[in-house]
Each structure stands twice: as structure tokens, then as C-alpha cells.
Amino acid sequence: MDRMDYIQAVTRTRVLEKKLLSKGRIDRMIEARDIGEIFKTLNETEYSSAVAGVSRDEDYENILSYELKRVYKLMREITKDQVVVDLMALKYDYHNLKVLVKERMLNKDLSKLYISIGSTDFKKIKDGFIEGNLRDVQPEFREAIEAVLKDFEINKDPQRIDIILDRFYIQHLYKMAEATGIKLFIDYVKDMIDFINIKSTIRLKKQGKDMNFLEEVLFPNGNIDKDLILMSFSDSIENMITRFKNYRIGSGLLKGLESYRVTNRLSDLEKFMDNYLIDINKPSKYVNFGPEPIFSYLVAKEAEIKTLRIIMVSKLNKLSPEATRERVRDLYV
């Protein structure tokens, strides 16, 4: 990647960063009386076009979906090398693969679950899948589809669809990040793998699964060796903190595990994972030449949308501002 190719894109991104929701606006929405008041606040921001088409409180997801699509479209327009956007968009391809396979396996119409964001033309994949001809499908997606179909034929277990496609997603994502040679992208993926692996360890232990099942679920290519995570399967939370505190993700993981020990909620660990992944992107604010600000803006925007979803769901469920504030993520701004 030639860093000079990103001068104009970075300049545009700096303008977009200033439009990210401030802490003041987020606090205003947390304290709002109802979701209608939140819509009014959003109407004063770049979400105004999305809000205009929504009449019912329960349709808040339409606002978030509209904004997400708008942002991805814009970032593709200003970015020369699409892999910078694809790194964040790839998860939607694999989400759509899950929907596609489940539609066939469960014989259900799940078309409302598709997300029209991704790194590739999903219609091409869907058409090939329906026609039984994956020859022209990108190799990574073709291999994932073939693997999950073969597994279902043997095991007849729809729950394994997610496990297998998640593994192929992380493998594909790591390959893409490594190919860029950009340290931030590689660190982001490796750190995310470590967090997910540790969260999976705790979740599966709570569910009463055994170590063989964990071994199948754990992802390679993190900073923490899979064998070390397997060894932690019988650890208490205190011992996990001691075991992992000196790794790259140690600061965020320590907060997440301490919070989980108090609340017994894995969502708390997820919150501190999200905060950590935002933090490692913040130095991009000072990068003037290169792809990092574009990637980091997308990370920030997705975190902002997740925060809005948490606030809106909390408001619909009549949670207190204090309970909502405990759930929201840190901001990039």
C-alpha cells in the first residue's frame, strides 16, 4: 500500500470524524424520557436522513441499518484500496452465508436476515449456491460453503453451521489483514481472536461443554497460544486474570474479567473487548498518510451504532439511565 494514495481519503475522514456523536449527545439520549426523544436528538445529526423514514419506536433498527449502509457506501467511494473497508465488511459476508445455508438446511425463508453490506457481490454467491455451481465463487467462500454442507450431511446439527463459518471467517479475516502488512490491522485481528477465545472458554464452561468441544471452537492466529487457553479451561476467573494479564490485551481483559466476576455477565467482557478495540484505533487520529484512519473511522462508526442500539433497546425496555450507562461502550471521539 502506498500511503500517499490516502491523502484525500484521510482529509475526508477527518471531516467525518467531527460528525461522530459526542459524549454530550450520548448522555442526552441516555437521559431521554423515551425513544421518541432520542429520535429528535438524532435528527440534529447526520442520522437525520435515516430518522426521517421512521414513524414507530419499534423500527429503530431501520435507522441504524440505513446509517450503516450509508457509511460503508461512502467509505468505498473515497477509498482507493477496498481491502481497508473489506476488513470490516467481511463479517457481513459470513453472516449472509449462515443465513443462506440455514435457509436450505432448515427449509425456512430467512430473507429478512440478510444484510446488504459485504466485501463481495453476495448475489453471485447465492445464485451459485442455489444452482449448485460454486465454480465462480471466491475460493475462501466456496471452501467455507463446501465444508459446512459436508459437515451437515454427516452430523445433521444446524448449530455447527455457526461454528464452522465463524472459523472460516476468522481465518479469512486474518489472511486479509496479514496481506496488507499494516500493523494496526494485524493487531486488531489478533487481539480480537484472543478476546473471542477467552470469552468462548468461559461461555462453554458455563454451558457444561468439555475441552474437546472448546478445542474445536478456538481460533488460531491470536497472540495467546491455543494450548495455553485450553489449559485455562479449568481455571477460576482469578487464575485466568493471572495467566493472561501480561499479554497485549491484558489491560482490557483484566477489566472485563473483573467485571464478569462481579456480575457473571459475559456481556460485560464483551463491553471491555469493544472498548479495548476502540482504544487501539485512537492513534489513527494522528496518522496523516495511510489507510489506518479510514479503518479506524469504520470501527468508530460501528461502535457508535452499537451504542445507539443499546440505548434504544434499554429505552424500549424502560431501563434506568444508570443501567443503560453501565452497558454503553467508550467513544472514539
Automatic annotation (TrEMBL):
InterPro entries: ATPase_csu/dsu_sf (IPR036079), ATPase_V0-cplx_csu/dsu (IPR002843), V-ATPase_V0D/AC39_subunit (IPR050873), V-type_ATPase_csu/dsu (IPR035067), V-type_ATPase_csu/dsu_dom_3 (IPR044911). It comes from the Bacteria. One of its GO terms (molecular function) is proton-transporting ATPase activity, rotational mechanism. Coiled coil: none annotated. The keyword Ion transport applies. Pfam families: vATP-synt_AC39. The keyword Transport applies. Keywords: Ion transport, Transport. Belongs to the V-ATPase V0D/AC39 subunit family. This is V/A-type H+-transporting ATPase subunit C.
